[in-house]
Specification:
Largest sheet: 7 strands, mixed
Order of helices and strands: HHHEEHEEHEHHEE
GO molecular function, one term: S-adenosylmethionine-dependent methyltransferase activity
Number of helices: 7
Helix content: 25-40%
Protein name: Thiol methyltransferase 1A
Distance between the termini: 41 Å
Number of strands: 7
Keywords: Signal
Shape: globular
CATH topology: Rossmann fold
Structural class: alpha/beta
Pfam families: Methyltransf_11
Number of domains: 1
Length: 242
């Protein structure tokens, strides 16, 4: 089975040669400009299907308010702001994303969620949050982002660094399926193609292992089967306390 999987993956990789070439000559930058438009449409569908899961996850956010009742949330890879509706009223929000073309859609989402206090939008990758001070954030949120960052461990180190002691890292990510399943098989076959259309997204990443090794003091992590397209059904969600 493994040899067949590798062979089919190689075939798909060959079929992706035009995409490789477009990336090499700089045409991939055009896709990065229209990617936010695609994500804006897909996020609405994802939120509809995952509404209950997200609601359950973010229900714990108020537990991490400071003594005065203030809650400062920093979202890594905020995209179009698909999580904003789930944040507690009055929360102060710092948005980060490496793609500046998301800002237009982000502004529209902010206008629809005036229960939040928006501090700023920072164009930055999860691996490099140097603009944020150590021990300054109550909650870091990261959803559907660890699948596409270049360095998962560094992203988690940055999240840990900027969290105050007792703060929490909330996550929701699609991950690699169980090795004995057809989901795992097709994830590996389709990964070369998915990488390009998902702007660097990996559907074969065992993200839970990185979270477990990130040095948090307390971890609440669950594996779930999401009501989504079969190759992205495997998900993890939860939060980790610094």
């Amino acid at each position: 089975m493994t040899s067949v999987m590798r062979f089919l993956s190689s075939v798909v990789n060959i079929l992706c040669i035009p995409l490789h070439l477009s990336h090499a000559v700089g045409l991939y930058g055009i896709y990065k400009r229209i990617f936010p438009f695609c994500i804006n449409r897909m996020s609405k569908s994802y939120n509809k299907k995952m509404h209950d899961k997200k609601k359950d996850l973010f229900r714990a956010l108020p537990e991490f308010k400071r003594a005065g009742g203030q809650l400062t949330i920093l979202e890594i890879g905020c995209g179009t702001g698909a999580n904003f509706e789930f944040y507690p009223p009055g929360s102060k929000l710092i948005c980060t994303d490496p793609n500046p073309h998301f800002e237009k859609y982000l502004t529209e989402t902010m206008a629809k969620n005036d229960h939040l206090r928006y501090e700023k939008f920072v164009v930055a990758s999860g691996e490099d949050l140097r603009a944020v001070e150590d021990d300054s954030i109550d909650v870091v949120v990261c959803t559907l982002v660890l699948c596409s960052v270049d360095d998962v461990s560094q992203t988690l180190r940055e999240a840990h660094r900027i969290l105050r002691p007792g703060g929490a890292f909330f996550f929701l990510e699609h991950v690699a399926g169980d090795t004995s399943t057809w989901t795992y098989f097709f994830q590996h076959v389709l990964q070369p193609l998915w990488y390009y259309f998902g702007d660097g997204c990996s559907i074969v990443r065992e993200t839970w292992k990185y979270v477990e090794e990130a040095g948090f003091s307390d971890l609440k992590l669950r594996h779930i089967v999401a009501p989504l397209f079969f190759i992205i059904k495997p998900h993890i969600l939860g939060y980790a306390v610094k």
